[in-house]
Amino acid sequence: MTKRTLLALAALALPFPLLAQHDPAALQQKALGDDTAYGIVEDLTTEIGPRLAGTEREAAARAWAVERLKAMGFSNVRIEPFDMKTWVRGTETAEITAPFTGKMHISALGNSASTGDKGLEAEVVYFRTLADLQAAPAGSLKGKIAFVSHKMTRTQSGASYGQFGGVRRAGPGLAAQKGAAAIVIRSVGTDYHRNPHTGGTNFPEGVTPIPAAALSIPDAENLERMIARASKTGQAVKMKLVLTPRQIGTTQSGNVIAEVPGSDPQAGVILVGGHLDSWDLGTGAIDDGAGVAITAAAAKLVMDAGQPKRTIRVVWFGAEEVGLFGGIAYAKAHGAADHVLAMESDFGADRIWQVDFKLPDGTDDLKTRIANALAPLGIGRSNTVAGGGPDVGPTVALGVNAIDLQQDGTDYFDLHHTPDDTLDKIDPKKLQQNVAAWATVLGIVANDPADLLPTSAK
User: Fold this and answer.
1) Shortest CA distance to 308 belongs to which of 175, 417, 439?
2) What is the DSSP string of 271-318?
3) What pLDDT, in 10s, does the model give residues 28-56?
4) Residue 439 has what DSSP assignment?
5) Could you tell me which of 76, 221, 347, 440 has the fewest CB atoms within 10 Å of its CB?
6) What architecture (CATH level 2) is domain 15-87+249-457?
C-alpha cells in the first residue's frame, strides 16, 4: 500500500478535514439544537442552589462541577483552591416607626456589620444622590441612619450599572466616615418588585463597618414620600433596623479548571469561563449559572468537532461576587503565560447582540472573519475595545487579548442579585444563541494561524 493511499484512507476515516470540523456554520447549526447549556444550569440550580462564596454550598458546587466537567469529556479537570474571609447573612428586617408606620423589604449588603439582635432605631437622613452624601459634613450623621436614593436607568449595554452601582459600593463606607449608625440604599436595579437587590460593599481601611442594606425599589420610593411629607411638618422619619450578618473567619474557595488540549502546545491557551459562586437570595441561574453553562457547552462543541490547534481552558471561577477573588487568584497563579485570549460570560442569558475586540495590530482579517461568521446570529461588530469581564480582567490587564460577546442587558438588572434569579428566567432558545456565538468564536480562534501571544510571553 502506497503512502498516498494511506493518506487517502486516513482522510476518509475523518468526518471532515480539520478546518471543516470547526466550520462556523456547522458549529452554529449544532449549537442551535443543543441543550447542553440548559442542562448544566438546570442541574446546578436544582441540585446545588445558592452558592455564597466561602460557604459549604460553594464547596458543594465545586465538587459537583468537577464531576460534571469530567463527564463532559474535558481533560485536566481540577480545583485550584484559595483562602478568603467569609461573610454570611443573618436576620434582616426594617420598619418605619414614626411618624408613619410600615414594614419594608430589605436585604443586607455583603460585608455589612450587625445591628445586634435587638436592632437599632434612629432618625433617617435622606440623600438624593451619592454626591449629596459625599458633601455631608463630617460627623453630621452621628447616631442616624443614612438613606441614599438614585434612579438606575435601563440600558441594553448595562452601562448605567457603573454609575449607579457606586451607591452600593461606596455609600456605606462614606456614611460610616460621616458618623452614621447605619445606611440603607435604594436597590441597584430596574424592577418594581418588592425584591431587594443585594451585592457587596467595602469599607475603607481604618473605617469601622456599619450595618448596610438595600431596600426594594417600591419601598425606597415609599420612604422618599414619607420623608417629603414628614418634612412639611418638621417631623423626623424613624426606622427600626435589624441586621445580624457575621464574619465567620477564613474559609476556602477555589477555581474549577478543565481543558480541551490543543494539538500544538506552542500555539497558546484560550481562557474562557464565568463564575460558579452566586449570591444567596436566588439560585444563581442568570448570575452566573448561565455563564458557566454557555462557555462549557461551547467548548464541548469545539472539542467534539475535533482537536483544535490551541488549548481551550474553561474556568469556573470562585468568589467573584464578594470581591473577584477567583479571577485575582487565577492571574496570580498563571500570569499571562501562554494565554492568547480571554473571554467571559457574566451578564445573564439574553441574546448576544454585539462583539467587541481587543486584538493585536495585524489581526484585521481575524476580526473580519469572526464578525462575518457571527452576523447570521444577529450579532454586529462594534468599535468598543473589549475588556474581557470581571474574572478574566486581571489576566487581560497583564496584556492578554480579549473578545467580548455582549448580551442584551435591558432586563438584566430586574433580576440581578435578587430572589428572582431563578431558572424560569432563562429562555432556552436565547441560551442556544449564546452557545452558538461562543462556539463560533472559539472554533475560529482555536485554529487561527495568527501570533496572538502577549509580548510578555515571547
Assistant:
1) 439
2) EEEEE----SSS--IIIIIHHHHHHHHHHHHHHHH---SSEEEEEEES
3) 999 999 999 999 999 999 999 999 999 99
4) H
5) 76
6) 3-Layer(aba) Sandwich (3.40)
- pLDDT at residue number 231: 96
Separation between Cα atoms, residue 313 and residue 154, nearest integer Å? 34
> Is the pTM for the entire model greater than 0.90?
yes
Please give the grid coordinates belonging to residue 58: 460553594
Active-site residue list: 320
Instruction: Looking at the structure, give the CATH architecture of the domain made up of residues 90-244.
Output: 3-Layer(bba) Sandwich (3.50)
Structural domain boundaries of the chain? Answer: 15-87+249-457, 90-244
Phi, psi of 69 (to 5 degrees): -70, -35
Phi, psi for residue 413 in degrees, rounded to 5: -85, 10
The Cα–Cα gap between 60 and 277 comes to 11
**Lookup result for grid cell 464565568:** 274
Please report the beta strands in 99-144, taking only residues with DSSP state E, as ranges in sequence order: 102-104, 106-108, 120-127
User: In the predicted model, is pLDDT for residue 444 greater than 90?
Assistant: yes
Residue 5 has pLDDT above 90, yes or no: no
Task: Check residue 207 and report its DSSP letter.
Answer: P
Q: What is the pLDDT of residues 352-396, one digit of tens each?
A: 999 999 999 999 999 999 999 999 999 999 999 999 999 999 999
Rounded CA separation 304/308 (Å): 10
